[in-house]
Design goal:
It is a single chain. The protein is about 0% helix and about 40% strand. β20 (about 300-305) and β21 form a beta hairpin. The protein contains no helices and 25 strands. It has two domains: about 5-10 and about 330-375, no CATH class; about 25-325, Tachylectin-2, Chain A. It has strands spanning about 5-10, 40-45, 60-65, 70-75, 90-95, 105-110, 120-125, 130-140, 140-150, 160-165, 180, 190-195, 205-210, 220, 230-235, 245-250, 260-265, 275, 290-295, 300-305, 315-320, 330-335, 345-350, 360-365, 370-375. It starts with a strand and ends with a strand. The protein has about 375 residues and is an all-beta fold.
């Protein structure tokens, strides 16, 4: 049985890691010519190679905060759970990076996760103890549209996924496509979906964790981000909790869908800086989406259809300062039983000082009691 622990975050008990300082002035973004960041701001685009990419479509990368665990989709692989049942089956695969920077050969994620026709990991928690996956599940059974959480167990396997209870969710997810991601605080859930039946264009929404463990009714991210008649999709909130990346076919892009960046200006989730196109070579004349970052914002991972092994590949891009989120701190720790000294799996809530405002949650590992959280650099 999990225990719930609350602890406070003070400036004296944390150390800065991985992140580099970046400008906080969003006004400068608006001065970029045609709101496109030029190619000179990108150092390198790197295909992740044959251990991950194949002649099949690889899609939707989800990278861990430390940059060492990558989940992704491989479409129509013979090892996919429903390969023989339908065309274009999508299963979750994963790869781990070693100390030399080499990615392991991709491995198929075992049951109970890959259990339906179209599977995906939407988010992995900073400590890699939780994953948010596509679909609503109860006791391992698939219920329909929605999202579910699974927890890593002592044996390394994942628990049966359990759907998140989101108020009036089905009123909003009625289009042809939908997806989600989670902010690293574990309290803000981002979606792209359409309330119009059969629609192929999406808007972006946010839902918040409530005191009773359910999630609030989805709320639009506002008119600046959700343009009429355009497809806004795959929102990703960086670890700073302010910098949002998303894919859109809005005017001013370079291809079918491009990656754009904006910054949240207040807590309403309605006020945003002017979206900026990340430019080439991140964006291509083709379809670019599923942008994700490690916690430090050093490297972005995304799906591209250009110059790959197959129809779509996963690439890594090292970013320059203009494209990065604000710096963050990574906090690690362990939870043990005081008497037995055995590791404990516990639900953790962390707060800021001195106001005691709850700013996020985590879950310690069943294996060694370890946990990891990510905080903005300028918070106490």
């Amino acid at each position: 049985m999990k225990k719930v622990l609350t602890f406070l975050i003070a400036a004296a008990c944390i150390e800065p890691v991985v992140a580099q300082p970046s400008a906080s002035d969003t006004g400068g973004l608006k001065e970029q010519k045609q709101n496109i960041i030029t190619a000179s701001t990108v150092l390198k685009v790197e295909n992740l190679g044959i251990n991950i990419n194949s002649d099949l479509p690889e899609l939707r990368p989800t990278i861990s905060a430390d940059g060492n665990l990558l989940f992704f989709i491989t479409e129509n692989h013979p090892a996919n759970t429903k390969f023989s049942s339908i065309p274009n089956s999508q299963d979750i695969w994963y790869s781990e990076r070693d100390s030399t920077g080499k990615w392991s050969e991709a491995r198929h994620l075992r049951d109970p996760i890959n259990s339906v026709f179209y599977n995906a990991v939407y988010w992995v928690s900073p400590d890699k103890n939780r994953i948010l996956i596509r679909g609503a599940f109860t006791e391992g059974g698939f219920e329909g549209k929605g999202v579910s959480m699974s927890y890593r167990r002592k044996n390394g396997r994942w628990s049966n996924p359990q759907m998140l209870q989101i108020r009036n969710y089905h009123k909003y997810d009625r289009g042809l496509q939908s997806g989600a991601s989670m902010a690293n605080d574990g309290q803000s859930l981002l979606f792209y979906m359409s309330p119009t039946p059969g629609s192929g264009t999406n808007d972006m929404f946010v839902s918040f964790l409530l005191a009773d463990g359910t999630w609030s009714e989805p709320k639009s991210l506002g008119k600046k981000l959700n343009l009429p008649e355009y497809n806004e999709m795959t929102p990703y909130m960086a670890s700073d909790g302010e910098t949002l990346y998303f894919s859109s076919d809005r005017p001013g892009g370079l291809g079918e869908n491009d990656i754009w960046m904006t910054r949240r200006l207040d807590k309403s989730w309605q006020k945003w800086s002017e979206p900026v196109n990340l430019g080439a070579p991140i964006n291509t004349p083709d379809w670019d989406a599923f942008f994700t970052l490690d916690a430090g914002g050093e490297y972005a991972y995304l799906t591209t259809k250009t110059s790959g092994y197959g129809e779509s590949d996963i690439v890594r891009v090292k970013l320059m300062e203009k494209e990065k989120p604000k710096p963050v701190l990574m906090i690690t720790g362990n939870v043990w039983n005081q008497k037995t000294k055995q590791p404990l799996s516990a639900s953790l809530i962390y707060e800021t000082l001195p106001d005691g405002v709850e700013v996020g949650n985590a879950v310690s590992s069943e294996v060694d009691g370890s946990f990891k959280i990510v905080l903005p650099y300028d918070k106490n």
